[in-house]
Design a protein that fits this description.
The chain is of the alpha+beta class. The protein contains 18 helices and 10 strands. It has a 5-stranded antiparallel sheet with strand order 2-1-5-4-3, sandwiched between helices. A 5-stranded antiparallel sheet has the order 7-6-10-9-8. It is elongated. It starts with a helix and ends in a 6-residue tail after the last helix. The structure holds fe (ii) ion.
């Protein structure tokens, strides 16, 4: 090969190697034991924060080292003793004061007498790798701490916790389920086993008692339901565990992995045996109380009717009057849209509104024709007397007041208190109208019956003076629409 061509090829090779030398992402160097940098590539210059190799070469490593964690003297002693260094991890300081983590490979170059003349080395910047490694370690530590915390929380809970795979085998259990339901030795024993394993073990350990463990025998297979529906659910599960009845409030949910693949189920259960017993006792007590209340109401009703009859035996001309007044009063109240409670108070008061006549002498009550003023005063006393008699009974409604006010009139012309307008209870205003209408329609010893049309005409005429116009309107509406008849 001609010399010129050989020279060209050599130049080309040198240029190629120089480019590779500078651009390879590994720092390369040759230094002298005295700290002088003979060769360095651009990668190592940049690793240390220099713009060019020339700048780096101004640095004397003996005077100005870059390894705060690994003194140069140690490096020199080691490489000269061992001849080479493979994978020395170190921290280097850059020109801006920041640090990089490196892994260094180096070997000594000796002259023919064996004296060390150079250190040739290669340096990898492993800062990113180390940071990633530390981040992974950190995550593993966090994960491990979380697992530890989860285990501690689970085992300190009174509620039972577990997870199962799709074959219904446990993959996690806490202490509560092991101790209170499975009778397992520890939380690792159930892993890989189904709850049937433990049920059968309990039964075979107590063959003398078929009721020793019956838990779940007649309950739904809630694992299958959750696996099938892929929805969370609440289940009541019960039966005997270690010879004692146990009722569990169970909550289960499907367990999916991060790709949405169904991996099994998770569950929790709370023992609610005592609560269920109390609930059932409460239901029984409530039913007994309701039955006693119904009997009380029936007794009250009978008592009221006996009382009503008692008055009517002393005043035969008014037979059935109070019963009819009660029906009419309730119908008027309903027409006016009053509530059920008010209607009930009105009904009770109406049924016995004339009970006070028990204190009026028989001869006055049954006397035909007009009464003398004294006799009239005695009759008027029946409102007060009735309230006194009924006041002995503690009704839930203002029965006593209604009876006391049933002869009051809206214009203050009534008795015994001469109350006016809204000072009179609405129930008493209704009873007053019902009482008068019924009385006018019925026969009396001192006059014949007026008939309903005439009675309504009469009472309409008094509307706004003696009687509450609203009540009269409701009463007339009832008869006109044919919704009430005596
Ligand atoms: Fe009366």
């Amino acid at each position: 090969m001609p010399d010129g061509k050989r020279k060209n090829e050599k130049r080309s090779l040198v240029s190629f190697l120089q480019r590779v030398f500078d651009r390879i992402p590994v720092g390369l160097y040759r230094t002298t034991p005295e700290g002088k940098i003979i060769h360095a590539n651009l990668s190592i210059a940049r690793m240390l924060g220099y713009e060019s190799v020339e700048e780096l070469r101004k640095r004397n490593l003996e005077v100005e080292g870059y390894e705060p964690s690994y003194p140069r003297q140690d490096f020199k002693e080691r490489i000269e003793r061992e001849g080479s260094i493979h994978g020395l991890d170190a921290i280097w300081r850059r020109t801006d004061g920041s640090f990089i983590e490196v892994r260094e490979y180096a070997e000594v170059v000796r002259d023919e007498t064996g004296k060390v003349i150079f250190y040739d080395g290669a340096v990898e910047d492993v800062t990113d790798f180390r940071n990633a490694e530390r981040a992974i370690l950190e995550r593993e530590r966090d994960y491990s701490a979380m697992l530890g915390m989860f285990r501690l929380l689970s085992d300190n809970m009174q509620d039972m916790l577990w997870a199962k795979d799709t074959d219904k085998k446990f993959i996690f259990t806490n202490k509560a389920i092991c101790r209170r339901l499975l009778n397992a030795n520890d939380t690792s024993e159930p892993i890989g086993k189904t709850d049937m394993f433990f049920a059968e073990r309990e039964r075979s350990a107590h063959p003398e008692d078929p009721e020793w463990h019956t838990f779940g025998e007649i309950c739904v297979d809630s694992d299958s339901i959750v696996l099938k529906t892929r929805e969370p659910g609440q289940f009541d599960e019960f039966g005997n565990v270690q010879g004692q009845f146990m009722f569990l409030d169970v909550h289960k949910a499907p367990l999916f992995d991060e790709n949405g693949i169904l991996k099994g189920t998770v569950g929790s259960a709370r023992i609610v045996t005592r609560e269920k017993e109390l609930e059932s006792e409460q239901k029984r007590s409530k039913s007994e109380l309701e039955s006693a209340y119904r009997r009380l109401i029936a007794t009250q009703e009978n008592t009221l009717r006996v009382m009503a009859k008692l008055v009517e035996t002393r005043d035969p001309y008014t037979s059935g009057h109070q019963e009819r007044v009660a029906r009419l009063a309730v119908a008027i109240a309903r027409e006016m849209g009053l509530d059920k409670d008010t209607m009930e108070g009105l009904r009770i008061a109406s049924l016995v509104h004339d009970i006070g006549k028990l204190r009026v002498p028989m001869e006055i009550l049954s006397k035909p024709g007009h009464l003398a003023p004294m006799e009239m005063e005695l009759i008027k006393e029946h409102s007060r007397a009735g309230a006194e008699i009924i006041g002995e009974i503690r009704f839930f409604h203002p029965v006593e007041e209604i009876i006391y006010q049933h002869h009051e009139r809206i214009d203050g012309s009534g008795y015994p208190q001469r109350l006016k307008g809204d000072d009179i209870l609405i129930e008493a205003r209704i009873l007053a109208v019902a009482d008068v209408v019924e009385a006018m329609v019925a026969n009396r010893p001192y006059r014949p019956a007026l008939g309903i049309d005439l009675a309504l005409e009469e009472i309409k005429a008094c509307s706004g003076t003696m009687f509450d116009p609203e009540v009269v309107k409701a009463c007339c509406g009832l008869f006109e629409s044919g919704r009430f008849g005596f």
